[in-house]
TrEMBL record:
Protein name (record): Ectoine hydroxylase
PANTHER family per UniProt: ECTOINE DIOXYGENASE (PTHR20883:SF48), PHYTANOYL-COA DIOXYGENASE DOMAIN CONTAINING 1 (PTHR20883)
Protein family per UniProt: Belongs to the PhyH family. EctD subfamily.
Catalysis performed (reactions): L-ectoine + 2-oxoglutarate + O2 = 5-hydroxyectoine + succinate + CO2
Functional description taken from the UniProt entry: Involved in the biosynthesis of 5-hydroxyectoine, called compatible solute, which helps organisms to survive extreme osmotic stress by acting as a highly soluble organic osmolyte. Catalyzes the 2-oxoglutarate-dependent selective hydroxylation of L-ectoine to yield (4S,5S)-5-hydroxyectoine.
Protein source organism: Mycolicibacillus trivialis
GO MF term set: 2-oxoglutarate-dependent dioxygenase activity; iron ion binding
Lineage summary: Bacteria, Bacillati, Actinomycetota, Actinomycetes, Mycobacteriales
E.C. number(s) listed in UniProt: 1.14.11.55
Keyword Iron part of the UniProt annotation: yes
Pfam families (UniProt xref): PhyH
InterPro entries for this protein: EctD, Phytyl_CoA_dOase-like
The organism's place on the tree of life at top rank: Bacteria
Length: 300
C-alpha cells in the first residue's frame, strides 16, 4: 500500500523510486493570480509563467540592508552548536539558519514588506503562509554549493506537499556575482516534474541539508533538461530578489572567491495546498523545515 493510499491524497508526482520513469508533465498553473491581484504586471506574470522565475531589483532598501547584515551575523553567533536550526558546513562554519523569521523580528518584518508579501499572494492566488525560511550563507573561500534539484521534489516526498503551488523568494544580502556561488537556474524546467531514483533514508534531512544525494535528477536527465532549456543565473546587488517556482531546477557551485554571498530565503505556500503525510518519507520532518500550522508560522 502506497503512502498516497494511506493518506487518501492522489500522488500525481511519484518519486524516490526503485527504477527510473519518464518525466511527468506539470498539471497545475504556474501563476494563480492576475495582473489586477498585485504589483506584478501582465508581462512579468507571463515571463514568470514561461521561465519559472523573476528578478526584482530593490526588494529590500538600503535602510534595511545594514540591519539585516548585522542580524545575520547575530543569528549565526546566537544559536548553540547543537541547535538543529543551524546547519553547519563539514568544516564547521554556518551554512544555513532555518526559521529566522521566528527568531528575528527584523526578518519577520521583511516577510511582510510591500515588495514581498503582495507578490507571493499574487503568484499563488490568495492567502499564503511561510512553509520554510532560512538564511543561506556562503562565505568566501569555503562556501560549498547546492547540487541540481527541484525543491518541490523534496517538499512533496518528505513533507507531503501535494501540489506545485509554492514559490520561493531569495533576497540578496550581499552582491551576487557570477563567480561567488550565485544560483543557477534551468528556465522552463518548472513545467516538468523529474522523478528521482532512490529510497528516502531515515532522517534524511540530517545529511541532505549539507550535501544532497537523494532527490536529485540523474546526469542524463540534467543533460537533456539543459540541452532543451539552457542555464540562467541570478546576479545582482544586495537588496534584489529572485522569485522562482517550487519545481524549477536550480543549483549553485562552491564559492572559492574572497567575496561572501548571503541570502534570505523565504518559501510561501498557498493555504489551499496544506501538507499531508510525506509521500516518500518515513516520518514528518521538523516544523522548522516544513511548517504545518500557518497560525504559528506567519499566516499572511
Amino acid at each position: 500500500m502506497t503512502q498516497a493510499t494511506l493518506t487518501g491524497v492522489e500522488d500525481r508526482y511519484p518519486t524516490r523510486l526503485g527504477h527510473a520513469i519518464s518525466p511527468v508533465p506539470r498539471t497545475e498553473p504556474t501563476v494563480w493570480g492576475d495582473a489586477l491581484d498585485g504589483p506584478l504586471s501582465r508581462a512579468e506574470l507571463d515571463g514568470f509563467a514561461d521561465r519559472g522565475y523573476l528578478i526584482k531589483a530593490g526588494t529590500v532598501g538600503d535602510d534595511h540592508l545594514p540591519l539585516l547584515q548585522r542580524e545575520l551575523e547575530w543569528l549565526g553567533a546566537e544559536l548553540a552548536a547543537d541547535d538543529p536550526r543551524a546547519v553547519r558546513e563539514p568544516g564547521g562554519g554556518i551554512r544555513s539558519v532555518f526559521a529566522p523569521h521566528l527568531l528575528s523580528d527584523l526578518i519577520a518584518e521583511v516577510v511582510r514588506l510591500d515588495t514581498v508579501l503582495p507578490i507571493a499572494r499574487q503568484l499563488l492566488g490568495g492567502d499564503v503562509y511561510i512553509h520554510q525560511a532560512r538564511i543561506n550563507m556562503m562565505p568566501g573561500f569555503t562556501g560549498s554549493g547546492f547540487y541540481w534539484h527541484s525543491d518541490f521534489e523534496t517538499w512533496h516526498a518528505e513533507d507531503g506537499m501535494p501540489e506545485i503551488r509554492a514559490v520561493s523568494c531569495s533576497i540578496a544580502l550581499t552582491e551576487n556575482y557570477p563567480y561567488n556561488g550565485s544560483l543557477m537556474l534551468v528556465p522552463g524546467s518548472h513545467r516538468t516534474f523529474y522523478p528521482c531514483v532512490g529510497a528516502t533514508p531515515e532522517n534524511n534531512y540530517e545529511t541532505s541539508l549539507v550535501s544532497q544525494d537523494i532527490g536529485v535528477p540523474d546526469r542524463d536527465t540534467l543533460v537533456k533538461a539543459v540541452d532543451r532549456h539552457g542555464i540562467d543565473q541570478f546576479v545582482g546587488p544586495a537588496g534584489s530578489a529572485l522569485w522562482f517556482d517550487a519545481n524549477l531546477l536550480h543549483g549553485s557551485g562552491s564559492n572559492i572567491t574572497p567575496l561572501p554571498r548571503s541570502n534570505v530565503f523565504l518559501v510561501f505556500n498557498s493555504v489551499h495546498n496544506p501538507l499531508t503525510e510525506p509521500f516518500c518519507g518515513a516520518r514528518r520532518r521538523p516544523e522548522y523545515l516544513a511548517a504545518r500550522d500557518p497560525v504559528t508560522t506567519l499566516a499572511l
